[in-house]
Write a structure and sequence with these properties.
alpha/beta; six-stranded parallel beta sheet; five-stranded antiparallel beta sheet; 21 helices; globular; binds 5'-O-[(L-methionyl)-sulphamoyl]adenosine
Length: 664
């Protein structure tokens, strides 16, 4: 049976769209999950959303929708983001899943029955953005010591978890398992700031809002959001059912978390597990923050970077590479557009891109039928071969420590070595003399093999680039793509090249920076820089231009920027069922398959269609219209229709497409 590997990300608050900082943790977890799968592990990679709590309830109220409708909408966007970033999670848990909620009630009751939870009164301070309690003495200048934001005075009847009971066992855990928290410096922080000064019991229920899991035996209380959230790591495996997935994957091999939530994961969570008599996770890795000019990214600082914009501009693999390469995992690091474009140009376009394109072009030009078997090796070759053979071990050593940047840096050393080998062996000179053909074939074979090994080892980091390289080099045998195949040098089979797949185009720093600034600021995303000036651009021929060379905005309407249009999420859906809305002769209520979920849409088209006319139709849906109730029925979007003198005509697609397809 395969060995198992269980890795988790924090479950994210769906209070807003996620930004590049959240993508950082998830991409790191994905690289690790892919690496372990390639090494033959049965991997469980869990991510999800932390949907309860005061913050979300307030957000939903501000938006005039129910908390559930609010989070449903954001969670759809989060899943789309993970799909875009090629995140290969195995499970996605939502804390509003019925099974999770039932498990939380079980946990709360179990701890209460054991005497680990008791009722009392809480008086202190609460930071709603962090959903954390603080005592007077812990506050820094009367603000939350974690995020620096204002705290609220709270006094309410509450249940408490006897955290103090676990103080000594936690100290022992830290002292006896130096690997439990990584990087190690974070362990000292926990010991000195929290554990040694003494743990107080933790308030674990709230009564001043109701968006949470109800305490089963005292229904005016909801369970504190961190108890609800931390438990996701076991409820996602089926807890309280102790067989099946829980038996197979628990304890987790590693919880990846940002440094600000290490405290919850290394103090509260292990204490909860001790109280539940469950084994503890093997490791909590607290990584650093991506910092921006104005500090940590946040909406209030106005420095939020949308990963979708970056992926559209530069491609997913480039963004994943940058996140994993730029900052050693564990430390804080700066994110800047200059650094991103710089890395794309130097590492991806120059180093990797040139190696691949030069080698592919030379093989194609000199040996279009494939490399001949007649070979001639020289001493010089061994340096490259040895570096290639040592590479897998170096990558593994770093990956086992979650040192993504270092692992990539090792791969890039071999890319550099290979480029140098081209300069040393000068294949274009060898190509001039037919007697040198065996030597030329050998050089190109070594380069192709180095590229094969590099591409196989790149798979955890970049999901699409290796496949493009294999296509170009005609690498089809699955064995040549396995992790184990990198233990051998010389497996490349030359069967002729295919058309080179473009990897990473070189960017003009100034133009790319300006375009990116515009896009991130949400301004006009002018058509991609083509170098064509406005005057040179072909003018669109209008049937009857109102003003020569210009298109006027329709009467009563202003022009909108392209970025305004981009704010509208339009998708193809398929109507599964449809019925009239009771009490209305205009409205029809449809259940629409959106690919990854079904949503309900109410439309005023009963005068033009019978419900049964619509079933099976593919329709165009405005998917991010704020949900609202129409005649008592929730409508989560709008179907687009043409308006004619005789009524509405539903817009549809010219050919059947997958439900959920983007319309742009
Ligand atoms: N819901 C809690 C976690 C519960 S886990 C049982 C939470 N959610 S969050 O949406 O605020 O996400 C926090 C996580 O996002 C951080 O721990 C970190 O992993 C990631 N990041 C958010 N901003 C980040 C940066 N600027 N840089 C790096 N990681 C960041 O806390």
């Amino acid at each position: 049976m395969k060995p198992t590997y269980y890795i988790t990300t924090p479950i994210y608050y769906p209070s807003d769209k996620l930004h590049i900082g959240h993508s950082y943790t998830t991409v790191a977890a994905d690289a690790m999950a892919r690496y372990k799968r390639l090494r033959g592990y049965d991997v469980m990679f869990l991510t999800g959303t932390d949907e309860h709590g005061q913050k979300i309830q307030r957000k939903a109220e501000e938006n005039g929708v129910s908390p559930q409708a609010y989070v449903d909408n954001i969670v759809n966007g989060i899943k789309d983001l993970w799909q875009l970033l090629d995140i290969s999670y195995d499970r996605f848990i939502r804390t509003t899943d019925a099974k999770h909620e039932a498990a939380i009630q079980y946990i709360f009751k179990k701890l209460y029955d054991k005497g680990d939870i008791y009722k009392s009164e809480y008086e202190g301070w609460y930071c709603t953005p962090c959903e954390s309690f603080w005592t007077e003495t812990q506050l820094v200048e009367q603000k939350c010591p974690d995020c620096g934001r204002p705290v609220e005075k709270t006094r309410e009847e509450s249940y408490f978890f006897r955290l103090s009971r676990y103080q000594q066992r936690l100290i022992d855990l830290f002292e006896q398992n130096p690997d439990f928290i990584q990087p190690a410096s974070r362990a000292n922080e926990m010991l000195n700031n929290f554990l040694r000064p003494g743990l107080e019991d933790l308030c674990v229920s709230r009564t001043t809002f109701n968006w949470g899991v109800t305490v089963p035996f005292d229904t005016k209380h909801v369970v504190y959001v961190w108890i609800d959230a931390l438990s996701n790591y076991i409820t996602a495996l089926g807890y309280p059912d102790q067989d099946g997935a829980l038996r197979r994957y628990w304890p987790a091999d590693v919880h990846l978390v940002g440094k600000e939530i290490v405290r919850f994961h290394t103090i509260i969570w292990p204490a909860m597990l001790m109280a539940l008599d469950l084994p503890l996770p093997r490791q909590v890795f607290g990584h650093g923050w991506l910092l921006f000019k104005e500090g940590k990214m946040s909406k209030s600082r106005g420095n939020v970077i949308d990963p979708v914009v970056l992926c559209r501009e530069f491609g997913v693999d480039a963004i994943r590479y940058f996140l994993l390469r730029e900052v050693p995992f564990g430390s804080d690091g700066n994110f800047s557009n200059e650094a991103l474009i710089g890395r794309i140009n130097s590492d991806l376009a120059n180093d990797l891109g040139n190696l691949v394109s030069r080698t592919a072009a030379m093989i194609d030009r000199y040996f279009p039928e494939g490399l001949p078997q007649d070979r001639q090796t020289e001493d010089l070759d061994h340096e490259l071969i040895d570096d290639c053979l040592a590479l897998q071990g170096k990558v593994q050593e770093n990956m086992e420590q979650l040192q993504f940047s270092q692992a990539l840096s090792e791969i890039w050393k071999v890319i550099g070595r290979s480029n140098k080998y081209i300069d040393e062996t000068t294949p274009w000179i060898l190509a001039k003399s037919p007697q040198q053909s065996p030597r030329l074939a050998t050089v190109l074979f070594h380069l192709a093999e180095a590229i094969r090994i590099i591409s196989v080892l790149l798979q955890p980091f970049m999901p699409s680039t290796p496949e493009k390289i294999w296509q170009t080099f005609g690498i089809v045998d699955p064995i040549l793509k396995t992790w184990a195949s990198c233990e051998t040098f010389g497996l490349f089979q030359s069967v002729g090249m295919n058309k080179a797949q473009p990897l990473f185009p070189r960017l003009e720093m100034d133009k790319a920076l300006a375009a990116l600034d515009r896009l991130l600021a949400g301004e006009s995303s002018a058509p991609k820089e083509t170098g064509v000036t406005a005057e040179e651009k072909p003018k669109t021929k209008m049937a009857q231009p109102r003003t020569a060379g210009q298109v006027a905005a329709p009467e009563g309407l202003a022009f909108i920027e392209f970025s305004d249009f981009q704010k509208v999420d339009i998708k193809v859906g398929q109507i599964l069922s449809c019925k009239p809305v009771e009490g209305s002769d205009k409205l029809l209520c449809s259940q629409v398959n959106m690919g990854d979920h079904v949503r309900q849409i109410v439309s005023g088209i009963a005068g033009s269609y019978q419900p049964e006319d619509l079933i099976g139709k593919q329709v165009i849906v405005v998917a991010n219209l704020k949900p609202r109730k129409i005649r008592g029925s929730l409508s989560e979007g709008m179907l687009l229709c043409a308006t004619t003198a005789s009524g509405y005509r539903i817009l549809t697609v010219e050919q059947v497409v997958e439900p959920g397809a983007e319309v742009s």
